[in-house]
Amino acid sequence: MPMSELAASRLDDWLEKLSAPVPDPGGGAAAGIVIATGAALVAMAAGYIRADAAAELVATATRVRGEALAAAEHDGRMSGLLVAAFRRPTDDPGRDGALRTATVAAADVGADLVALAASLDGPLLWLERFGEARLAPDVAVAARMLACGIRSTAVNIRGNTTSAAAAGVDAPTLQRLRAAGERAEQAAARLDAVAERVTATL
Fold first, then answer.
1. How many CB atoms are located within 10 Å of the residue 153 CB?
2. Least confidently predicted of 14-18, 21-25, 39-43, 193-197
3. For residue range 100-116, what is the model confidence (pLDDT) as tens digits?
4. 169-189 confidence digits (pLDDT tens)
5. DSSP 81
6. pTM: predicted TM-score of the whole model, two decimal places
7. Which of 87, 95, 157, 192 has the most beta carbons within 10 angstroms of its beta carbon?
8. CA–CA separation, 198 vs 202, rounded Å?
9. Geometric angle at alpha carbon 18, from 15 and 19, rounded to 5°
10. In whole angstroms, how far apart are CA 42 and each of 55, 104, 134, 192?
11. Residue environment code for 113-152, b if the CB has 16+ CB neighbours within 10 A, otherwise e
């Protein structure tokens, strides 16, 4: 798979882009970077352990890191489309349709990003139980970062859901998007609980 532009860029160059007053990248992409960083920490903590299960965790976390970066890039593109839809004249007959499409797509990207981060719940539970004691702070930080990325993404899901409702998105779709936001909060709470338990051992 070819390396994404985001993965190939220098961190400071990307942060420079993030600081510019343009929609791509935006907050959703920033949340994706946080999640990718948390995934990298999971891989690092697992990499110290000599066990077949640990090697599998490294592979899983590495995959999540890459997919989170790809999702962050995709979120940036969705942000651009969303802003373009909002900027259409209010008397444009296609405006509401464009907003419906863009808001639902943006919320779905967020839901996918949440699912990626939440998939590391199991690896973190394994590290909590079997990980190196000296790496406990890294495990706790990884859990906190993943929870932070999820909660940040949940904010975007909520905002996009509100905009989708205003644009006239159908009730079943709104219910699906709201459920995605609720799942995000639950996933973040589980990860925070891991971080709290691990931190209590320090």
1. 33
2. 21-25
3. 999 999 999 999 999 99
4. 999 999 999 999 999 999 999
5. H
6. 0.90
7. 157
8. 7
9. 90
10. 11, 31, 14, 15
11. bbbbbbbbbebbbbbbeebeeebbebbbbbbbbbbbbbbb
